[in-house]
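Bug #77: duplicate submission created two jobs. Keeping one. Sequence:
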Amino acid sequence: MEQLPQPAQATIRQEAAGREIAKIERANWNSQPGYRVQFKEPGRNPDIYVAESGTLLRPEEKPPGVATLFMGTTFDKTPAAVQDTLRREVGTHMAARSGNAAAAVPSGCLR
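Kept job's structure:
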């Protein structure tokens, strides 16, 4: 990291916000030279691209929130065919009891 230009180092430190850096390599983003910085996070290793000038060429992509990850769709908003299949496979009582379609499916079925 010490070999990078000071402006790039400053941006990387700011974006890292205390996280461990897994890897830094020279890379281009949309034909602009700079650095690809990968942060060490369990299961993700998100990355950013930073120009030598310190400009953030591509910010880190945020993971989907819990509300959108297999959750958030209520049973009554699913297509009729899905509702019929859930009622048949899971049973009416579980599907009706849960307002959340994902929760109506037995554990392990959404893997």
